[in-house]
UniProtKB/TrEMBL annotation, chains A, B:
Keywords: DNA-binding. It comes from the Bacteria. Residues 28-47 bind DNA. SUPFAM superfamilies: Homeodomain-like, Tetracyclin repressor-like, C-terminal domain. Gene3D superfamilies: Tetracycline Repressor, domain 2. This is Transcriptional regulator, TetR family.
DNA sequence: GTCTATAGTAGGATAGAC
DNA sequence: GTCTATCCTACTATAGAC
């Protein structure tokens, strides 16, 4: 790793941290520029707009989330733990950087002006990743009902992310894990 | 009901509809004024600020939600249906006005600048209402485990609200109901 | 209480030099 | 590619008349 990453990478890092903690709409471009130590024109040369930067930052975040989740699954001892590892991953993902009150993908879709396809597409990718992997991991536990169980867990994971707004994030993931466990145990 | 409500009420109605559909941050004051047919100064005379208007609109919305939910509970035939009636209420609440992609209370808290106590307080009231009534309704079904079941259902209801961003709201509530039913049936 | 008109400001984006 | 400096729009809020 070079001592100081290029402007593009610094912008992505700054955007991911600030958007995740303060929300996309609530984070001015100036704040990202200041944190990255970069001039306005550089941002627009690379990403075209604030929304373009958001899209790139979300794509990077999705890859990172994918990695963290994979690692959590690999570390789990059995099928049941692998299925519930998504909550370990959420804990690890949250404490990895700036503490985020809220899921960046849901935030992006919630704040988008309804005609902005960028944020919706990013959330769709996140949803597809969650649904797909939950189905794979549910198969050894629920067999033919894997798809059904995966849909239940998708609701619970999404609920845990949103519960971070109602209570503190640590409690939110803990409760989500408990609820998911109660569901999974129906198929034991 | 008078033919044309006063400016204050028209502002509240317009704010509730527009904030719910387009989000608080994404809805300019001008849009609320145009829909209400009211001049800027009138808004500030009544509510002091855009945030003040939001607070009043959220309070009105919470009362309306309380009523809709109560009605749905009253219409349910048995204990299990009364506990799951929250999803009927969500369907009825959504179709009542402008179709909202998203929960106004969660939106308010997600979009708030983190130091704004107004939105956080409104979300806390909403959370308290949900948790409290879910516990009452869970008692006949789960007995001593009512509090535990209520926490599970709080996650699922919150998840259903957030799932409205991932998919269409009707599917979100339907899936939420299914997940909640699976949980409730653990206590049968 | 309500209006018309306007002030003040913040945020997103660009022009042009190096 | 990057910087300095600046423009322009859109928004919140207010002043003053009726």
């Amino acid at each position: 790793m070079t001592p100081r990453p290029g402007a593009r990478q610094r912008l992505l890092d700054a955007a991911e941290e600030l958007f995740a903690s303060g929300g996309f709409a609530g984070t001015p471009v100036d704040a990202v520029l200041a944190r990255a130590g970069v001039a306005p024109a550089t941002l627009y040369a690379h990403f075209g707009s604030k929304t373009g930067l958001q899209a790139a930052a979300l794509a990077a975040r999705l890859r990172r989330w994918d990695d963290v989740w994979s690692a959590a699954v690999a570390a789990a001892p059995d099928d049941r733990a692998r299925l519930l590892a998504v909550f370990d991953a959420l804990d690890a993902f949250g404490t990895g950087g700036t503490p985020s009150r809220w899921c960046a993908f849901l935030d992006a879709a919630a704040g988008a002006p309804a005609d902005d396809g960028t944020a919706v597409a990013a959330l769709a990718e996140d949803t597809a990743l969650l649904r797909g992997r939950l189905r794979e991991l549910a198969a050894p536990v629920a067999g033919e009902d894997a798809a059904e169980l995966a849909e239940h867990l998708l609701v619970v994971v999404t609920g845990a992310l949103a519960m971070a707004l109602r209570t503190d994030p640590a409690r939110a993931t803990a409760q989500g894990r408990a609820t998911a466990a109660a569901l999974v145990d129906r198929w034991r």
